[in-house]
Known about the structure:
Layout: H1 16-23, E1 28-30, H2 35-38, E2 43-48, H3 57-72, E3 77-81, H4 85-90, E4 100-105, E5 108-114, H5 119-130
Parallel strand pairs: 1-3, 2-3
Antiparallel strand pairs: 2-4, 4-5
Amino acid sequence: MELMGTSPKIDLYSHPLFLRMVNEHGFESCDKDTFPQFRRSGLSMVVFIEDPNRMKETMDALVIAPELAKSCGLIEHKAVVGPPNARKLAVTYGFKRWPALVFFRDGKYLGAVDGLRLWADLVREADEIMHSEPHYPPSVGIPVRSI
Length: 147
């Protein structure tokens, strides 16, 4: 017996929004093994998404990321990393909120926009990152204490 108010489980990789992102908007679907090869010359944007059954904002990211890539026109390479690979790779880039848009130039880290934003704020932050100089990603914030 199904409880009222429960919705069916979302299968991310067969969902029409995910398939549209990959098939129509040209995002490569990467995992922990293929991600290192994705980082190539030019400007790249990688969308890190979580299980949509745990985090509803994932579905928003599937719509927002292609629109951002289309609106700025500078992004040469686009990828999406979903669960469970996104969690494993995310620790390298130190973002704290999901979904996250991570930017690279010539394979080097530029920055990340983590969490959802108003459109104008997202565009402004992404533009600042895309025009910044590469640097090391922030740490994951593990506290260090002296004994």
